[in-house]
Amino acid sequence: MAREKDADRSVRGKKSSHQPGTEAKGPTRAVVIVPVLTRQQRGDDDTNRPRLTRSAEARHDEAVGLARAIDLDPIHTAVVTVNDPRPATLLGSGKVAEFAEIVKEGHAELVIVDHPLTPVQQRNLEKELNAKVLDRTGLILEIFGERARTKEGTLQVELAHLNYQKGRLVRSWTHLERQRGGAGFLGGPGETQIESDRRVLQDKIIKLKHELETVRRTRDLHRAKRKKVPFPVVAIVGYTNAGKSTLFNRLTGAGVLAEDMLFATLDPTLRRVRLPHGTPVILSDTVGFISDLPTHLIAAFRATLEEVVEADLVIHLRDISDPDTTAQAEDVERILADLGVDAGDTERAIEVWNKIDRLDEGNRARLLADGVDGNKTPPIAISAATGEGIDALKAIIETRVSGELATLTITLTPAQLGLVDWLYRNGDIVSRADNEDGSVTVSLKATQSAREEIESRLHRKNNG
Predict the structure, then answer these.
(1) Which residues are noted in the entry as GTP-binding (predicted)?
(2) pLDDT per residue as tens digits for the range 251-273
(3) For residue 422, what are the domain limits?
């Protein structure tokens, strides 16, 4: 049984140069297939915690969004229930024949299957459909290949591509005859062309790993320098399109690309920002997560994701307006757990609900009430687009990284008046009195770390 849709054929841009297929101008015409396997076939129970089932509608919309993220033209989309996955083609022969006719009539050049395919399944489907076939992993790799801007991002994507291609060299070449070894007729059987191709790929993989190791060492040096001037690092993580870049721009005033598009940004961005009571932090905007994130990408992007592992505070940003927000949150928490980060650690992680401006008052009140759990810290509700709740979020971030606010009253002697400017920049001045003897009495609200710094500076002044 299948539920099919004729997708909107409007195209936001030209065909990506990364796309295989036609040489004609314009976007690549694609058919998007979303196989929905039954619970018995999915094999979800690999952990003690059951995995939430995504709705077919949400999976369909996400698959179409992924296709459009690289300007494909999805001329036909379908959700197909698969009760008995076929080892050769995943889909049944009847469905394969049906899609072959759709591809032919629609002059489609690419078929997206929103499910991991084995090399054999991909090859067989390409023969039956007479079109290039990309599975979910291949599609995400194509998107990342287009989004990468920095040298590090390009290296990471290329490494993931090569690891993916290495497993695809299964009779997909027309020149797999053996290469004769030795000279004349006495040479040995030599190696097959496929073995030669794999060796070339493996050599490239080794070279890229060495280059990425250099990148990792450079990151470690930068991290070590930051620790010498110990600014806390705050990393924003979340499902793709949750609004991370919009929040990053709101907090820092940066101009990071922020669009309503899956994987609008890929390369991580770090900015220094000063919180309301003067605490400086380094804010990190990371790559968005997604369900069934390919293992090739997790491995390749480990150097980038180390920014999350090393962060003093992790903001888990959720698109609370998305009907699938709970399943998305679980996917993010699973990936964070793989990285060694516990999203449930209330000392290190903050759950933030974004896009509350898209909810009506009734749904907003209900969600906020449901989010209050006696065993966990209530989530922070914000709208990164409108700025609602941002001040409260900043205050909580500052409390987490610098301690609770407290009122402090100090009197500075004339020799210590050089600290007055620092106090104004790093605290919330409540009152100031200029005394007749030239001293100044200041009452201010300051974080714990700021109070400790004040004591340290006064001590140095007194002993200087």
Answers:
(1) 238-245, 263-267, 285-288, 354-357
(2) 988 665 555 555 555 566 788 88
(3) 406-463
